Amino acid sequence: MQSTKVLTGRMPDRGLRFKTSLLYAGAIPPSGGPHRARFLNLNGRQALSDADASFDDVINILCAKAALIPSPHRPLESIDDDHRREIQREKRTEWIEFVDTLDQATLDAIEPKIRRSEAAAVAALNYLEDHELAHSAHEAIHRAAFVRRGLFGCPIVLHDDGDYWTDCALNMSHLRAGMSAEVVSDFECSICGRLVEDCEHIMNEVYDKTAEREGDGTCTICDAAECEHEAGRDYPVVAQGSARNMVAEGVAMVARPRYPLARIVARSMDLDEVGDSDLVREAARQGRLHCDACLGPCKGLNDMRAWGERPVDADGTSGLSDGVDQT
Asked: How do the domains of the chain map onto residue ranges?
């Protein structure tokens, strides 16, 4: 699903700025009950399967060299900051040596696969954070991020306003908070196209719908420009309310967003006095300043529901930590 709305905001009194995904294309996720549980389970398992398949593609591309990939640290989590940074330095060195054995063609073939694996693993955790498979999704994020960081880095970017920013998928995924938009909208029935309150279809029930092509060529069944649905043929479709003419009146940060993928996607970083160094700023401009958090281990998932119970770091992230590497 593609993100359709991104918001930039600032955490009150702490200077932390962030970018978030608010909504994404498709049917509105059920708000609760068994329908939501089924929605989260099906989408989460599919995302986890996609993450595994893309990672397997990476291993197949590497062939015999896959056996030489640096091994991630175990256990997955550690609360010792000094120990974590020591591991990150060690793994960074191992990856530099490994990358020197690969040619550019191999790296080019791997990059889209490993990024797809990481994105799918993050989506899986967003769907499955309260599911028995949450740990598997967490592991899948670390697995993909470890390889992606090792091969391609994780740049920390210096913006024109002087702030450092990161979109490290591992760091963002460990901040378990989401966005809830206060939206005023009309809702059209996915079966007949009329406003939900004016139609006779029961939401979440299945009805036959005849496939047609809209004026722009998209399919009335799946909204895709190219698909296997034949015009004039009936297909079973779940009646759902599709939002139209949406106006966002406000946004709140919540522990469990209705849209599971409505999450923080990037944030600013406070590097303290290190960030004021001309050398560090120049390294960021040249793409040589990297986050090392992906090299592990992590502090664990940082659930918004427990924020009131945990000490808050200087950057307002309640224990979310970044490794920083200038290479």
From this structure: 6-180+252-326, 185-244
Model pLDDT for residues 231-256, shown as the tens digit of each residue: 999 999 988 887 777 776 778 889 99
C-alpha span between 119 and 169 (Å, rounded): 8
Task: Check if the beta carbon of residue 165 is closer than 8 Å to that of residue 271.
Answer: no
Are 181 and 5 spatial neighbours (Cβ–Cβ below 8 Å)? yes
323 pLDDT tier (thresholds 50, 70, 90): low
In the prediction, which pLDDT does 1 show?
Answer: 35
DSSP characters over 202-237: PTT-EEEEE--B-TTS-BTTT--SS-SPPTT-EEEE
The number of angstroms, rounded, from the C-alpha of 134 to the middle of its chain's C-alpha atoms is 14
pLDDT tens for each residue of 74-92: 999 998 999 999 999 999 9
Q: CA 62, CA 107: separation in Å to the nearest integer?
A: 9
Q: How far is CA 219 from the centre of its chain?
A: 28
On the 0-12 / 13-18 / 19+ scale of CB atoms within 10 A, 193 is exposed
Spatial separation of the C-alpha atoms in residues 317 and 302, rounded to whole Å: 9
pLDDT at 11 over 80: no
DSSP code at position 195: B
